[in-house]
Amino acid sequence: MKDIKAIILDYGGTIDTGGRHWARVLREAYNASNVPITDEQFREAYVFGERALAKAPIVKKDDDFRHLLLKKVDQEIAWLEYKGYWNASGLMREAARYDIASFCDNFAREQTRRARAVIETLSKTYKLVLVSNFYGNIHTVLAAYELDQFFPDIIESSVVGVRKPDPRIWKLGVKAAGCKAAQCCVVGDNFRKDIAPAASIGCNTIWFKGEAWDANEQTDETLPNAIITAIEQLPEALKK
Length: 240
Prior knowledge:
The chain is of the alpha/beta class. It has helices at residues 22-32, 39-55, 65-82, 90-123, 138-144, 157-160, 167-177, 191-200, 234-237, and strands spanning 6-10, 127-132, 153-156, 184-188, 204-208, 226-228. The termini are close together.
């Protein structure tokens, strides 16, 4: 890729999970906490929790990721209890809630540590912009993981009123980058939400192909300029 001046990065799944969908990480956390539910029951609870946090101001601006996780798990467990999938004592419920949040926070902390080294290197050469579907607290989350200094420009869905996969959110990322779309490279883990819409507005793209939630999702490996399977591969991919 020639004449790249800016890198527009996705956050969730790209920076904080090493390419894994958060649903899979959370499912692993529920298993580790011995919550006796099926995959389908978890899927229902996960979808309910995501929608609840997107629709209502449950997450506050000063919530770090651990506090966000506690609120997310609250919603998921409420659904499991409402549907009768899991009936636990108050103490068991609270223990599982904290264990699941701690599991995920520790996982994200390790993944962002790995990503930080790469991002710091890239920041010396490129303008960096973050584009994320998030809850209004992305600045607090980045600060907790020591990433905030690398992203002076952040396009957060709950703030701008546009969510991926709408290409308009990527256009806002290009505008923040201060250059042409053809001079930007979008990096994301989700083909439908990141790669396809970013390519549709003329951006270069690098697909961080990891562990998707839906293994049957339709993708086109000829669309991105490059495909990586680890964040450490990103600097070399940008040279292609």
